[in-house]
Write a structure and sequence with these properties.
The protein is an alpha+beta fold. It has 11 helices and 38 strands.
């Protein structure tokens, strides 16, 4: 029997019988579905996916070889006006590698009747290059209609078929992915799902090149294909949660990746082997390794910075000089990728490039200066956690630089002079990255220093609760970078770093001045500032004054709102916030009630909070509040303990001091 390398195919798990798989015919809907007014188990849903199916098949021609044929069929019930935008459909493709045709669409009305989308209403748009879009809008959309469409997507590459996600942002009644795969192609799955249907069998059918000998000789007109069905039913709407990352990784899906090809007459051909082979291929690519290894591609750039770099005594100084040269001379065009669009010399001439262009230029300068540095490939945040088992280059969408100073890793990501070496772009902080070292390719943890915010507040409180407030602060690392970026974009003092958060928390605050007090050149990792404000910090009621001592929230309430989480909590970087307030009470008031001092810490010590209240000289109170988060990733199952801490911290930051008028 022919062998197909589909590692999951023969682990058959069927919770539904074949008879339970719906037989849905395009253009025909039942009266029950027409009259449906709510989604099962979700009465508030704006729309309901009644049927979503992707059928994978293969084609073969003697000229082009093998190709993919993917047939899509979707049927959606529009239950509320908020869903009407789903009746505007856009199908995009690159006609250099693929095409979409056989587009058909119907709208079915709840009271009966069906209308087709006319062929002339299906519009083809071209961007002037190879990108093309097919657009159409369903007519006469009202509450309760069912929109249905199907199309054929043909692709010349069989390497990675379109991934199929069973769950969507609205409830799904039935989602099905089926495939008919010839025995020559060995696929592995990179998706995981607890499927309701997982069936496989062998089905004979004619296909492919005519072989002159072997098991698939021309006399055998039909060969056995792997006939596979995966399906899920009654899925709730997928909901993202605050402070999550790579949420799509938690959507049940099937994703196939071609691993090898075995034609009877040609032996076994490995499509991807291992990371060692991959790094060798990258080294030989013109748009990658050759650009930073061959001086002919970066000689002009080196000449422009050579004198400065060679005069510096230490590697750290040389790294900083090369980094600043790139960030000051080359503008990032906003595009991420791991392959360059031109040589460093060409990018130097145009003064603009994508993320790989900037970092390949930096890499070439470091290597020419005698500093060992390597390309560092990453998957950006919210584009999926990297897959380490298989050398899949298409999972990477950004390039950085890996080097070491004094035996410690230093991650470089050039594009903004306000962000110092060692602080990659926040989008790149996706936990793991691959070092393209030809002698030792390896995965590493993306680790960055903790970002710190220290705010010192002096409050002179009036009897009506208004406070003349002086603010002094220091921001480090990502906090400093964010602050400098904000100052470059906004000139109003109300929009200044830290001040903006205070004003958002207490909207009636008046900002009378803001000043950056640390103007030292070469210290972008630190930002010192001071501000003066009039803050509505308290509320007078009868003989009492309720005073809010913590003007800056330490934690967002969204962290503690949910009773449970199904997604991990994922911060981009570790952080610490420290708040110290000296409060001068108004004359004629005594401190009646204060929160108790408190120290909190998780079992592993990764999160902690310390709150203390001290009474100094008469009429003065000092509040010290520190929250520290040393870990960046907490699993969903850890949320219960964290939630209780979050709620306690939020309670502390909202608890007032209670002052009472002194007796006359």
């Amino acid at each position: 029997m022919p062998h197909l390398t589909l590692v999951f195919v023969f682990l058959v798990s069927i919770t539904l019988s074949a008879q339970d798989i719906p037989d849905i015919r395009f253009g025909m809907v039942s009266d029950a579905d027409r009259q449906l007014t709510i989604a099962a188990n979700d009465t508030a849903a704006e729309a309901y996916v009644l049927y979503n199916r992707l059928t994978l098949d293969f084609s073969y021609s003697d000229i082009d070889g093998a190709g993919l044929i993917e047939k899509h069929h979707k049927r959606i019930k529009l239950l509320r006006p908020a869903s009407f935008s789903r009746a505007d459909v856009v199908l995009a493709f690159d006609r250099e590698y693929e095409e979409i045709d056989e587009v058909e669409a119907f709208i079915h009305f709840p009271t009966g009747g069906t209308l087709p989308v006319r062929p002339e209403a299906i519009i083809h748009e071209n961007d002037g290059g190879t990108r093309e879009k097919i657009k159409f809008t369903f007519p006469q959309v009202t509450e309760g209609v069912i929109i249905e469409y199907r199309y054929t997507h043909k692709r010349r590459s069989i390497l990675i078929p379109t991934p199929f996600e069973f769950q969507q942002d609205i409830p799904v009644r039935w989602a099905q992915y089926d495939a008919m795969i010839p025995p020559y192609y060995g696929y592995v799955t990179l998706g995981t799902a607890d499927l309701d249907v997982k069936q496989s069998k062998f089905t004979k059918r004619a296909w492919g090149p005519r072989m002159s000998s072997g098991a698939y000789s021309s006399s055998q007109q039909k060969i056995e294909h792997a006939d596979v069905v995966w399906a899920m039913r009654d899925l709730p709407a997928f909901r993202s949660q605050p402070y999550s990352n790579n949420a799509s990784d938690y959507i049940p899906k099937i994703q196939l990746q071609l691993q090898n090809i075995t034609y009877p007459t040609g032996g076994k051909q490995t499509v991807f082997g291992d990371w060692e082979e991959t790094v060798k291929e990258l080294q030989e690519r013109q748009d990658f390794g050759r650009y930073y290894r061959n001086k002919i591609n970066y000689g002009k750039v080196w000449k422009a910075v050579e004198q400065e770099m060679t005069a510096l005594p230490t590697d750290r100084e040389k790294i900083t000089a090369a980094y600043r040269f790139v960030t000051k001379n080359i503008n990032w065009n906003g595009d991420y990728f791991f392959l360059a669009t031109g040589s460093p010399n060409q990018i130097f001439d145009t003064r603009i490039g994508n993320s790989a262009d900037l970092n390949i230029m930096l890499l070439s300068l470091l290597n020419e200066a005698g500093i060992e540095a390597h390309p560092l490939l990453v998957s950006l945040r919210n584009t999926g956690a990297p897959i380490e088992q298989y050398p899949l280059l298409d999972q990477f969408n950004h390039l950085m630089v890996y080097t070491e100073v004094d035996g410690l890793p230093l991650l470089l990501d050039a594009n903004d002079p306000n962000r110092p070496p060692g602080l990659p772009r926040e989008d790149a902080l996706n936990h793991r990255a691959w070092v393209g070292d030809k002698d030792n390719p390896r995965w590493i943890d993306i680790e960055v220093p903790s970002s710190r915010q220290v705010t010192m507040v002096e409050m002179h409180v009036a009897p009506d609760g208004r406070s003349q407030t002086k603010l002094k602060g220091r921001l480090d690392n990502y906090y400093a970078f964010s602050g400098r970026s904000r100052l470059a974009e906004e000139t109003a003092p109300e929009a200044a770093p830290v001040v903006r958060e205070l004003v958002a928390h207490l909207p009636e605050t008046q900002v009378t001045s803001f000043e950056v007090t640390d103007q030292q050149i070469g210290r972008p990792e630190q930002l010192d500032f001071q501000a003066e404000l009039i803050v509505p910090a308290g509320q007078a009621m009868n003989d009492y004054l309720y005073l809010q001592p913590v003007l800056l929230p330490m934690l967002d309430g969204e962290l503690a709102d949910a009773e449970e989480r199904f997604l991990p909590i994922d911060f981009p970087y570790p952080w610490e916030q420290r708040y110290i307030a000296t409060i001068h009470l108004p004359e004629g008031y005594d401190l009646e009630e204060v929160p108790s001092s408190l120290r909190l810490k998780t079992e592993d010590g990764s999160m902690g909070a310390v709150y203390s209240v001290q009474q100094g000289v008469p009429g003065t109170v000092t509040i010290s509040f520190t929250v520290q988060m040393a870990r960046t990733l907490y699993l969903a199952k850890e949320y219960g303990a964290l939630r209780d801490m979050f709620r306690r911290v939020i309670e502390l930051q909202e608890t007032p001091l209670v002052l009472k008028k002194t007796a006359k």
